[in-house]
Amino acid sequence: MGEGNNFLGDKISEATALRIIETIDDAVITIDRGGIIKLFNESARHIFGYDASEVIGRSVNILIPEPYRSAHDGYIERYMASREPHVIGIGARDLEGVRKDGSRFPMDLAVSEFTMAGESLFVGVVRDITRRKHTEAQLLQAQKLEAVGQLTGGLAHDFNNLLTVVIGNLQLMGRRAGNDAWMKQRIDAAQHAARRGAELTRQLLALSRSQPLSEQVVDVNQLVGDMHSLLERTLGETIEVGIQFAPSLHATKIDPALLENAVLNLALNARDAMPDGGRLTIETGNAVLDEAYAARNADVAPGRYVMLAISDTGTGIPAEIIGRIFEPFFTTKEVGKGSGLGLSMTYGFVKQSGGHMQVYSEPDFGTTFRLYFPVSAEMTAEARHAVTEQPRPHGDETILVVEDDAEVREVTVAMIEALGYQVLTAGDGPAALAVIREHPEIDLLFTDFVMPKGMTGKQLAAEAKTHLPSMRVLYTSGYTRNSMTRKGGLEDHEILLSKPYDDDTLATKLREALE
Ligand SMILES: Nc1ncnc2c1ncn2[C@@H]1O[C@H](COP(=O)(O)OP(=O)(O)OP(=O)(O)O)[C@@H](O)[C@H]1O
Ligand SMILES: [Mg+2]
Fold it and tell me: Can you tell me whether residue 48 is helix, strand or coil?
């Protein structure tokens, strides 16, 4: 014992020393040169499942599974010869221990040596790191998905701009084509392909958690209830659909269309897992994910959640692949049957909504996916449904279009002019402010959210309003990149038009913003 440790008196009695060893949270095991166990404390009993009396006098090998056991045999010998600490496994890489019942667990091992009555003894301190390994693996998985997401998100964003140009120009051509049937057919085909492209970028944005969200206060019971007959039709007669709704379910603020997509994706996966039929159960509930749960699950914020569970009685998911199912393009389905995007999109949407997603599967019995969405502060769950078909709204007000991409700007201007409006343009925030100073007649500022020259659409709007307080604002963006949602992004009353857009949506949003 060092000088500083004599607070218990000049000598710690043997009894005291033993009590200290017995209270330590880590397993403390002492062995001699031959690897024979001399001391085995209470925590060691707890971790390995043996009583001290069962192991004292036996080789430490019984606590070490292969292949570590063979490696360990040579450790002590080599250590005595070389005196280099690493050979006895100090700071060892991945090490595993084996319990009395044969189960294995990852452990941290620190070894030190001391001499007593001329004999070398080794003290091993063992810590069970199962929990830590589990959290690390989860974190790694989450980071991997995020990295793939970022890459895809960037690509999809640029594609959205290109598609906006393509769709817009085709629409303008379509109007000039008049009654030319051949032209109309070509244009329709091109438009169809462009829209499919837009659909694909939407999926990619979803998995990259950067799709524009149109969040509303949603009653999940009602939304899922409305899908009941759709699900029955989609899943076919051999699959029974059961629904168990929790009464007085809290409201949550999410994008209802994306939740419908998520439910559909999970239901389709369930159908594919039940080729001979079975049962799909959808359950809702109010859930509290507490600190303990958050500690076990790397990316969960403790709090109150609305839980939506979707279970099937299908094949289940083999343990070897369950860690990969959320990866984009991971699929076990035949070419043409699955793209492997369903779960990654769903996961991306849930994460982007501030939620949490979990899977539990039992091969041959079935699978349960649980989605958790944060409870909304607004408790009135009235899902408002969007307006339907109407003649395309138009007007004659003056609109300032601010967009840094020249091609997008050009087609947007053409589309807006076609609706009857007066249009002014600018390529960035500072240029837009110059136009605003010259033109007090501007009724609406239609601006891209993310722009160069150090001024976002939001900053531009704030600055512009000091000149023209009554001017309205409509934002557009290809993605959210978090900037648009939680962190200082758009507020509820602010209107966003997602790219790529067609002229119907543009016309509607312009009127919505102007009125
Ligand atoms: N309910 C389930 N039961 C069994 N396996 C499932 C279930 N859900 C997902 N899986 C497995 O996870 C994989 C990935 O699912 P995901 O929805 O991401 O892609 P996919 O269904 O293969 O293709 P896509 O959804 O793009 O059409 C599936 O191929 C399947 O192996
Ligand atoms: Mg799928």
Answer: helix
Q: Which two tokens stand for residue 377?
A: 């502060």
Looking at per-residue pLDDT, the higher value among 111 and 72 belongs to 111
CA 499 → CA 97, 168, 191, 414, 444, distances in Å? 55, 11, 15, 16, 18
Domain total for the chain?
Answer: 4
Distance CA 225, CA 242 (A): 11
CB 174 within 8 A of CB 504: no
CB-side neighbour CA atoms (13 Å) of 488? 4
Decide if 38 contacts 31 (C-beta within 8 A). yes
332 close to ligand 1 (CB < 6 Angstrom): yes
pLDDT for 127-176, tens place per residue? 999 888 888 888 887 787 778 877 787 788 788 888 989 999 999 998 88
* 8 A C-beta contact, residue 363 and residue 315: yes
Q: What is the pLDDT of residues 16-46, one digit of tens each?
A: 888 889 999 999 999 998 889 999 999 999 9
Nearest protein CA to atom 20 of ligand 1, as residue: 340
Domain boundary among 63, 93, 128: 128
Domain that includes residue 496, residue range? 398-514
38, 146: one domain: no
Find the 481 Cα to ligand 2 centroid distance in Å: 25
Query: Are 363 and 242 in a shared domain?
Result: yes
Q: Which two tokens stand for residue 455?
A: 């001024």
